[in-house]
Specification:
The structure holds two protein chains of two kinds. Chain A is about 30% helix and about 25% strand. By secondary structure, chain A is α/β, with parallel strands linked by helices. Chain B is globular and about 55 Å long. Classes of the chains: A alpha/beta, B alpha/beta. The interface between A and B is large, with 81 and 104 residues. The complex binds iron/sulfur cluster.
Amino acid sequence: MTGTADPKRAAVLASIRQSLGRGEPSRDARRELDDRIRRHKPNLIPKRGRGSHAEQVERFVAMAESVAASVERLTRDTDVPAALAAYLRRHNLPMAVMLAPTDWLCDLPWDTQPMLTVNSGRAGDDDVVSLTPAFAGIAETGTLMMTSGAAHPTTLNFLPDHHVVAVRRSQIVGAYEDAWDRLRKERKNGRGFDLPRTVNMITGPSRTGDIELTIHLGAHGPRSLHILLIDDDPA
Amino acid sequence: MEFMQARKFKDNAREAMADRNLQSALAQLKGGFIPRRQEAADRLPEFDALRDRARELKDHVLANLDVYLETFEENCRAAGGQVHWCATAEDARAAILGICREAGARTVTKGKSMVAEEIHLNGFLERHGITPVETDLGEYIIQLAEEPPSHIIGPAVHKTKDQVSDLFLAHHRQYGKTVRQTEPGAIINEAREVLRQKYFDADVGITGANFLVAETGSTIIVTNEGNGDLTQTLPRTHIVVTSIEKVVPTLEDASTILRVLARSATGQDFSAYTTLSTGGRRDGDLDGPENFHVVLLDNGRSAMLGTEFQDMLRCIRCGACMNHCPVYHSVGGHSYGAVYVGPMGAVLTPSLEGIDDARHLPSASTFCGRCESVCPMRIPLPKMMRHWRERAYDSGASAAMERWGVDIWAWTARRPWLYEAGARLAVRLLKRLGRGRGRLRRLPLAGGWTRGRDFPVPEGRTFQEQWRARRRAARPAP
Ligand code: SF4
């Protein structure tokens, strides 16, 4: 099933080549296609994915709110514990949160919120609220990009009923392509770069249109998505 | 005999047109999808330019499909994934069964996958002692109803809320749910609760893929519910069932097509969840599948390259063509009797299964051109339907059908397209409705026949054979 000796692989490739009316592509032809991948040029980036950073931040907020995410602006990351506790109280939620096990979140002043039970790790079925970082926020559609890893288990993005995301202003980019560029840079290795097991692009809370085509929130994933936008980069 | 069949067809077609549930569901579809897509397109000034770029990009991929697939495989393997090349549906089923057996799987959860429908995976797994659980709400509904999907993105779009309430009441007693829920929110919540445990219990999670990225060896799914993500994150093994034309060179290329996909499909700017999966769980990861398999299906696609049907391989399964099709609006998806329905199905099905078996599908068109005008990949659907008609005519495959038309015409004069749609589609109805199972709970065109009994699925191919089987079955059960 792997390797070039697999007869089914050979049959599919041969059928493609026969239909295209050519044999194996030449080395030059392959190099050209490899180069196209290496250059990974953007095709067409819509205007709404461009503009000043300040504009992108405003667009990110507006777009996220348009898909039923809520956005709260904080001036310092040390405000996160109090903001989270207030959010839970506002929505009548249990005072407990499962944090993504990143130093950044775990080292916040949680002791200022004695009523709040704070754990970190992957999500289980009983976790009602998670707090995770994001890799980037993408303005053009109000999309959060999450990368999986030891510090960010994917289950935190999907199992809890309420997903709270802390993202810094400086992480907001205009277009999807800008986020890919950042990801390539951050995950550079000998072969070029590698992606984590999972990259989640999340745009609003879970929803379904499968009952009479009317959109309802909270299908299988989180019923609410709350974004804490932290001002590390005053405009 | 033929006169009888034609006359009987009229009764059935009349019943379909008079099926209030079906008609109200179809009316909702028309009123929902069309304006939403238009509004999404209007919000993005570059929408049409993006369609052009998406088309160019996919044409480039198809001209170099072998190389991009090899690159995808190389990068997928480098990330720890395995690629299983499959020439036929049978190869794909065997590959999936092999992986499931290796994983010791008893139950598998499934995200929505049209390729899984194409290879009739559920019935096959069941016959091999593995229980598939659909987790997309629409797929779950039709799995309970034992029906095939009637739409490529809204598989249960033919079901009214009341019908779903009844289905859930009948099937969820075993979970202690004995109240008939009628509010959409409560219905959705009940499915959420019932399915939650299934994600944890499953040994294998199967999803489809909207794209394969050659650059990174990743597969991409685009969903709204989050079921696909739970399906692929919680079990030990993740199988992606997909097909060869889904590859794109780079993340930038995927982004270009993503910009037209959701807007064309549901009128959203972007779906709630776009997820890239690359290999299995990494060192230190606290969750995610250990094993990652990509089952890569050809099933007739490579043979479409270099023919007048090559353009069909640009299709990204958005559903816009059926959402805008007057024939689909009137007869619904099941009438096509195929996995792929609407205009895209009318072109694709004969390509995948041969024109003899599907000769009537390309005639399910008024040639109004709306499908092509909304297709994000600018696929010339009416032109290709015409090609198929010519081929069917040349091969003599359509001769018998023409005779029925004469009789039906008198009744359908007010709706000439119905003759096209119905007469040629009904043939395939019974064969496909069974989805590889033996019995049907309900036939959309013959509710009266099945109200009180299940219906055995005929194996035959022609209308005549199927009809005889159906008449036999309609008599009191033996
Ligand atoms: S043919 Fe075009 S409109 Fe129809 S599903 Fe495919 S991409 Fe969408």
